[in-house]
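Researcher: Next sequence.
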Amino acid sequence: MIWVTLTPEQIARADKVGVTRHENRLRAGSRHRNNLPLNFDRDRAAHISSARCEYAAHIGLGTEYWNADEDIVGKAKLPDLDDFIDVKERKFVYHNLIVQRDDPPNWAYLSVCSEEHPKYCVERWCWGYEAQKKPLRSLQPGRPAHVMRMAEAIMKDAHELAYVAQCNRAARRTTDAAPSTQQAADPW
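Model: Next structure:
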């Protein structure tokens, strides 16, 4: 586990991201992903709380990107961090990690507990393909999901995900710095 305490400035930034996401969804007339009826106050609070968890995970894992400004309705879904980490909030320590049936299998799903706000626990994670081996449960009408308890064997410590993110970043930099095959093969 990695503990992150957000400063008032970081909370304000995350809150701004959450409010913007909520406003974008309202403007686009987008439906709630969990098939819940729209509720302005609840939905806005959920966007804010999720953004805080994402920011805490970004800081705790040391990821290169927080896709905070990339949540534009109508575009392809992006992971929350870098190009493969999706943050899932757990409001209380006894909650489970939820991975939706249609979530990408090649993403990492990271649990962040917000129970002790402004202190966040960046907890455990699993790959989507691992979660998808679990049976589907109907937690919301028409939105079955895979449910993982934190103690399950497939759940790995957040420090391991920080290492995976660091290795991916190093591999990207190596690839970006290498000359392309076309350039190397054609000296004229």
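Model: The first helix runs from residue 8 to 28. Residues 2-162 form one domain.
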